Structures are given as structure tokens and as C-alpha cells.
């Protein structure tokens, strides 16, 4: 069964509350993923490792035999 719920966190200030909301709203497994944010100039993830791993991770979640929830924490590039 595919991923049923995804929450995107873009600020460290909202991470804990977003995670708690996800945990409170489901009895399913909750995964937390830390990934680079989208680079506004290239419209893709700024981290090369994230670019490579994201489709693999997403495919694994989509093939999950049970319903899951994903809290995706997008990390801004400094500098």
C-alpha cells in the first residue's frame, strides 16, 4: 500500500509540533526523513546525495506493505 500521509517541515521551529501531530493522527508507522530543500535557481534538491537517494526512498515507501506516514524535514542550504 502506498504512502498515505506526508508532512513537509521547512522550519526547525515547527519540527517538534509537526512530528507530534503526525504521531497523534495515526496508528501507523511514522518515518522522519531529513532532505535538502529545493534550490530556487535550479528547481532541484541542492544536495547531490539527496538527489540520488530521494527517488529510491520514495519508491520504497510506495511499495510498503502497510500504511505509513512520512515527516519530511527540508534543510536549507547555508551560504
Structure characterization notes:
- It is a single chain.
- With 79 residues, the chain is an alpha/beta fold.
- It has one domain (5-75): 3-Layer(aba) Sandwich (Glutaredoxin).
- It is built from two helices and five strands, in the order E-H-E-E-E-H-E.
- It has helices spanning 15-25, 48-62, and strands spanning 5-9, 29-36, 38-39, 44-45, 68-75.
- A three-stranded parallel beta sheet has the order 1-5-2, sandwiched between helices. A two-stranded antiparallel ribbon has the order 3-4.
- It is flat, with a radius of gyration of 13 Å.
Low-confidence stretches: none
The shape is: flat
Q: What is the count of distinct domains?
A: 1
Radius of gyration: 13 Å
CATH level-1 class: Alpha Beta
The proportion of residues in beta strands is 25-35%
Annotation field: number of helices: 2
Structural class, by secondary structure, is alpha/beta
Helical content stands at: 25-40%
Q: Please give the largest β-sheet.
A: 3 strands, parallel
CATH architecture, by name, is: 3-Layer(aba) Sandwich
Cross-sheet strand order for the largest sheet = 1-5-2
> Order of helices and strands, N to C?
EHEEEHE
Question: What is the CATH topology?
Answer: Glutaredoxin
Summarize model confidence as the mean pLDDT. 90
CATH superfamily: Glutaredoxin
Number of strands: 5
Q: Tell me the span between the first and last alpha carbons.
A: 40 Å
Amino acid at each position: 500500500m502506498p504512502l498515505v500521509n506526508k508532512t513537509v517541515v521547512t522550519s526547525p521551529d515547527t519540527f517538534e509540533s509537526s512530528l507530534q501531530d503526525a504521531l497523534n493522527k495515526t496508528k501507523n508507522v511514522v518515518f522522519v526523513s531529513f532532505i535538502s530543500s529545493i534550490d530556487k535557481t535550479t528547481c532541484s534538491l541542492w544536495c547531490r546525495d539527496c538527489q540520488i537517494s530521494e527517488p529510491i526512498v520514495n519508491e520504497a515507501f510506495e511499495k510498503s506493505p502497510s500504511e505509513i506516514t512520512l515527516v519530511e524535514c527540508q534543510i536549507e542550504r547555508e551560504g
